[in-house]
Amino acid sequence: MRFTKMHGLGNDYVYFDCVNGPTPTDPAALAKKVSDRHFGIGSDGLILIAKSEIADARMRMFNADGSESEMCGNGLRCVAKYVHDHGIAKKPKLNLETGRGVLSVELEIKHGKAERVRVNMGEPILEAAKIPTNLDGDPPINTMFEAGGELFYGTCVSMGNPHVVMFVGSEYFVTYPRDKVADYGVAIEHAVQFPKRINAHFVKVQSRNEVTMRTWERGSGITLACGTGACAVCVAGVLMGNTDRKILAHLPGGDLELEWSEADNHVYMTGPATEVYSGEWPE
Predict the structure, then answer these.
(1) Which end of the chain offers a freer environment for a tag, N or C, measured as fewer CB atoms within 10 Å?
(2) Are residues 249 and 218 in the same domain?
(3) pLDDT tens digits, one per residue of 59-94
(4) 136 and 237 housed in the same domain
(5) Are residues 140 and 98 in the same domain?
(6) 168 and 195: one domain?
(7) 18 in catalytic set
(8) Do the beta carbons of residue 103 and residue 122 sit within 8 Å?
């Protein structure tokens, strides 16, 4: 099976073109194999690009542990680039079907290739039961919870997949001699307050329109970027009064531009998409 390795700000996935090639019979098991960074291709997960009856293409995303996720912002930008650059739908504006529904994207084209993609991520989901979380509030805002023997204050947002955003100090951005994101990320992901597990984001506010963040991603661990997470950070910053509606988010893999629009209540994410290489997976 032919695969393509792509990344959005270092958040890397293995992509299979199921429009022009076969569909894996067991994508969950395949995700575990291809994601292994020692015995596989190496990635944060697997994404299938398939035909859609209601859009230009459909995205299915599997984490490195084989679990299927509803959405992936960085992955969606890469799907948009692949769909355009490989001729599935060579248009500057695309509609892509996801677990969150159909999302619209706009591509910045240079020399015939998509370099940057702006995604309309839709409205944030703020009802606790739909995020889902059993913390109080719709949504829970700066609410205390316990994980791994530590107390945290989190704001919960869903962008089609669940996120908890924690505004923290500089100690969460130091990896030596101790990395607190690694220490507490898995405990937060599996905390009882989050029945479908959670993506955890540790955020330092630089100014009203600029933040730095690190992510523990559900099913994959620490990643260099999380597009839906950056959108959730944008929303959480506004809900807490920490940031404006339009921000620049610095992630370990690079920067994303976010806006929670007052006009339509949708969140817009803009960032790059990069194709690395293609190859043949033997199975």
Answers:
(1) C
(2) yes
(3) 999 999 999 999 999 999 999 999 999 999 999 999
(4) yes
(5) no
(6) yes
(7) no
(8) yes
Buried b (16+ CB within 10 A) or exposed e, 177-192: eeebbeebbbbbbebe
- C-alpha gyration radius of the chain: 18
- CATH number assigned to the domain comprising residue 9: 3.10.310.10
- Residue 283: its pLDDT value, please? 76
Spatial separation of the C-alpha atoms in residues 99 and 61, rounded to whole Å? 9
State the pLDDT confidence band at 175, using cuts at 50, 70 and 90: very high
Concerning whether 156 is annotated as a catalytic residue, the answer is no
> Are residues 156 and 259 located together in one domain of the fold?
yes
Amino acid at site 202: F
Looking at the fold, whether 149 and 255 belong to one and the same domain comes out as yes
Average pLDDT of the residues in 14-43? 97
- Is 90 exceeded by the pLDDT of residue 279? yes
Q: Which one is catalytic: 18, 72, 78, 231? A: 72
pLDDT above 70 coverage of the chain, percent: 100
Total domain count, the chain: 2
Same domain, 17 and 137: no
Verify that 11 and 111 share a domain, yes or no. yes
Task: Return the pLDDT at 243.
Answer: 98
Q: What pLDDT sits at residue 232?
A: 98
List the domain range (segments joined by +) for residue 103.
Answer: 2-122+271-280
